[in-house]
């Protein structure tokens, strides 16, 4: 057996020909995704977000022929449906959906400074309304957005030659005419956070709870959608540059982050190219922690 026949890194980690939708794609990690995908050969990358000017600026900074801005509030199902219809006018399918939109919610990081039970009570009771917004964007929207794009993800499988519909006993390849050199099926990628697993709550209670829900949903979707040939994986980033961490320091002692630094856009670009490329074709239901070792230095379960 010639093991080297298909081991071309430029092919294994390529986004060539893919149609991708990214929520929260106008800045930070989402923008890093869009840039790396477009430069790696993606056919179309749709950026969804509330601030259309940010999306337009992002598209123009990369390649407006490939990257397309679509205004959308992921916490509003009618807005999501409108975005799907807009994308359908240009594309008959999508290959990858990246659930990346997120908000911080009430921080409440001062819980660790409380000197009395009464003080702790006041901190924990603060800003309850902010929890609703955080859950709608970080957690509920994952189900709503994924559901809205399922038919286009299914169409992506059909375009690749895979048998579609529910398959629980038969092999998905049975009766199909897919490219044996490219075994990928359509995929949902959910961006959670290491806050999903960190019990010290460095990012606040609401953010940690909503991202824990996001990670769980990403794994649950892998099981739910397996009979339909649609994969689901999760990325759990540590500290990366974004609107949420603007102004934060970028270097850290080893006792906090063994890598001694924040994550870079190059780190995140390599992760997304791994997952969307042929390199990630056999991955389903996985959580990819990318944090420079930070979870190793705090109480965490993952």
Automatic annotation (TrEMBL):
Q: Name one GO molecular function term.
A: oxidoreductase activity
Q: Which PANTHER family match?
A: 7-ALPHA-HYDROXYSTEROID DEHYDROGENASE (PTHR43618), SHORT CHAIN DEHYDROGENASE_REDUCTASE FAMILY (AFU_ORTHOLOGUE AFUA_5G12480) (PTHR43618:SF18)
Q: Can you name the source organism?
A: Aureobasidium melanogenum
Q: What is this protein called?
A: NAD(P)-binding protein
By sequence similarity, the record places it as follows: Belongs to the short-chain dehydrogenases/reductases (SDR) family.
**Superkingdom of origin:** Eukaryota
Recorded hits in PROSITE patterns, A to Z, give: ADH_SHORT
What SUPFAM superfamilies does the record point to?
NAD(P)-binding Rossmann-fold domains
Per the record, a Pfam family? adh_short
Q: Give UniProt keywords alphabetically.
A: NADP, Oxidoreductase
């Amino acid at each position: 057996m010639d093991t080297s026949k298909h081991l071309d890194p430029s092919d294994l980690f390529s986004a060539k020909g893919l149609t991708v939708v990214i929520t929260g794609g106008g800045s930070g990690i989402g923008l890093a995704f869009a840039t790396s995908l477009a430069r790696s050969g993606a056919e179309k990358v749709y950026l969804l977000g509330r601030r259309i000017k940010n999306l337009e600026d992002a598209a123009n900074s990369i390649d407006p022929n490939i990257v397309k801005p679509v205004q959308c509030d992921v916490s509003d199902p009618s807005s999501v449906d409108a975005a799907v219809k807009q994308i359908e006018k240009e594309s008959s399918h999508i290959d990858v959906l990246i659930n990346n939109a997120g908000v911080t919610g009430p921080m409440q990081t001062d819980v660790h400074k409380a000197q009395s039970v009464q003080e702790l009570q006041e901190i924990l009771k603060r800003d309850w309304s902010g929890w609703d917004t955080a859950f709608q964007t970080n957690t509920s929207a994952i189900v709503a957005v994924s559901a809205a794009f399922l038919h286009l993800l299914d169409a992506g499988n059909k375009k690749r030659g895979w048998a579609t519909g529910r398959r629980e006993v038969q092999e998905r390849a049975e009766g199909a005419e897919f490219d044996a050199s490219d075994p990928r099926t359509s995929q949902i990628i959910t961006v959670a956070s290491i806050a999903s697993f960190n019990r010290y709550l460095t990012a606040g209670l609401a953010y940690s709870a909503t991202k824990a829900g996001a990670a769980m949903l990403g794994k649950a979707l892998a099981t739910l959608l397996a009979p339909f040939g649609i994969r689901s994986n999760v990325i759990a980033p540590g500290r990366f540059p974004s609107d949420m961490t603007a102004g934060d320091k970028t270097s850290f002692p080893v006792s906090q982050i063994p890598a001694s630094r924040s994550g870079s856009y190059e780190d995140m670009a390599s992760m997304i190219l791994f997952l969307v490329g042929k390199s990630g074709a056999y991955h389903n239901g996985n959580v990819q922690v990318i944090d420079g070792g930070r979870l190793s230095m705090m109480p965490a379960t993952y």
